[in-house]
Amino acid sequence: MKYLILIPDGAGDEKIAALGNKTPLQAAKITHMNQLAQKGMVGSVRTIPPGIEPGSDAANLSVMGYEPATYLTGRSPLEAVSMGIEMTETDVAFRTNLVTLSGEGNYEDLTVEDHSAGDITSEESRILIKYIDEQFGTELMHFYPGVSYRHALIIKNGATDYVLTPPHDILGQKVGEHLPKGEGSEFITRMMKGSYKLLSDHPVNLERVKKGLNPANSIWIWGQGKRPRLTSFYEKYKINGSVISAVDLIKGIGICAGLDSIDVEGATGTIHTNFKGKSEAAINEYVKGKDFVYLHLEAPDECSHQGDLEGKIRSLELIDEQVLKPILDYLYSTGEVFKVMILPDHKTPLSIRTHSATPVPYVIYRSNQEAESDAGRGFNEESGATGRFFENGFKLADFFFNR
Ligand SMILES: [Zn+2]
Q1: Given a cut of 70, is residue 403 above it in pLDDT?
Q2: What's the CA-to-centroid distance between 182 and ligand 1, angstroms?
Q3: By percentage, how much of the chain surpasses pLDDT 70?
Q4: pLDDT recorded at residue 272
Q5: Does 374 have pLDDT greater than 90?
Q6: Separation of 287 CA from ligand 1 center, angstroms?
Q7: Considering the chain, what is the average pLDDT of its residues?
Q8: Are 48 and 60 a contacting pair, CB within 8 Å?
Q9: Which of 34, 36, 279, 353 is 20 to 30 A from 86, comparing alpha carbons?
Q10: From the CA of 334, how far away is ligand 1's center (Å)?
Q11: Which long-range contacts link 335-339 to residues 24+ away (Cβ below 8 Å)?
């Protein structure tokens, strides 16, 4: 048996007047998803438990069968794992941004100008993070370069109970009010201050200033956490699988769950992503003998954040035609029994342009157990609400794999 879980991120929405009171899923031409709904089962599921932020981390943990309340340990360790860093149980990961601070005087008096240092290139940031690691790194503590402004600090036997602030939350504010707090956090403040002295005159930054770009003149440390201890997919369901996503933290959850993370060239997380490349990569994993692919597509979520209704509908149609269809064609062609589940990890309604915690629709299809076909049953919020409801999202994976 082969399994596919397909996640059109943020696809769930509300009825929209401009669509004649339909949701984007209802308005989009998603022939293949609707066919699976007609011959399969639809329902709805709460992927975000009450009291938990509707983030991609919580939502995708749920979908993969892990209770967020137990396993949610923050983004940084997931990002670190996705960067290929092998974290032990006692390691603590911190997100380390390269940021732009502006103004004159003491570090405290500077202003947080840009949390991304002008979207610095990975080539430049690699040089800076390596330099920072040479200056501050020890046996127990290392900085690792990631992508653009996003990097990692790993501390062996580190503590997690510091109060650290995400730099994107304090843009335009003074540094002084937002320095690390909590017992033993002084060494973090020391490194951040020290980095300003080291980076301000670094040749990489002098060159950036010359070009009119924001200099990466300080590190900013936040978002600490330990690697979640997930029981692997193989232990839970006796299947081998892969995760395919452009998003670091979803790759990280997959790796922590024992899946292989597959990178697809041109996977950008936007509507301009390489949709065909994603389906080819998924098929390739089955050909190599994998039982399961967790295929995540960011585009509908990204369009929702941008308030782009047309783009959201178009991205759903592209996923249906260029991602789902070729994979179904392949799976049917093998003659082996297969199961498909499609659901958004969370809703991203265009009316609010951010994530919502309300239940999402799912469709489950099994190739040798087709239901009596119902032409009126599509894959959308309305039909989902008529089917079986899972209050605890993490139980849906058990249902999908064991049934
Ligand atoms: Zn989002």
Answers
A1: no
A2: 30
A3: 100
A4: 81
A5: no
A6: 31
A7: 95
A8: no
A9: 279
A10: 35
A11: 336/1, 336/2, 337/1, 337/2, 337/366, 337/367, 337/368, 338/1, 338/2, 338/3, 338/4, 338/366, 338/367, 339/1, 339/2, 339/3, 339/4, 339/364, 339/365, 339/366, 339/367, 339/400
Are 294 and 243 in contact by the 8 Å Cβ rule? The answer is yes
Q: State how far Cα 191 lies from the chain centre.
A: 28
Q: Rounded distance, CA 261 to CA 255, Å?
A: 6
Residue 144, helix vs strand vs coil = strand
CA 46, 51, 54, 55 torsion: positive or negative? Answer: negative
How far is the centre of ligand 1, averaged over its atoms, from the C-alpha of 286 (Å)? 29
Dihedral angle sign, alpha carbons of residues 317, 318, 321, 327: negative
Cα separation values, 256 from 64, 72, 77, 187, Å: 11, 12, 10, 29
> Tens of pLDDT along 14-48?
999 999 999 999 999 999 999 999 999 999 999 99
How many residues would you count in the chain?
A: 403
Are 207 and 372 in contact, with CB atoms under 8 Å apart?
Answer: no
| pLDDT at residue 75 in the model | 87
Cα-to-centroid distance, 147 and ligand 1 (Å) = 19
User: Please, what are the domains in the chain?
Assistant: 2-72+229-402 (3.40.720.10), 92-226 (no CATH)
Q: Could you tell me the two tokens for 181?
A: 């707090």
Q: Give the CA count within 13 Å in the CB-facing half-sphere of 343.
A: 29
**Residue bearing tokens 């954040």:** 305
Report how far ligand 1's centroid is from the alpha carbon of 382 (Å): 22
- Beta pairing, strands 92-102 & 111-114: antiparallel
304 SS3 class: helix
Residue 168 CB contacts under 8 Å (≥ 6 apart), including other chains: 115
How do residues 322-369 score in pLDDT, each as one tens digit? 999 999 999 999 999 999 999 999 999 999 999 999 999 999 999 998
Does 267 have pLDDT greater than 90? no
Q: What is the pLDDT of residues 153-183, one digit of tens each?
A: 999 999 999 999 999 889 999 999 999 999 9
Backbone angles phi, psi at 153, to 5 degrees: -120, 130
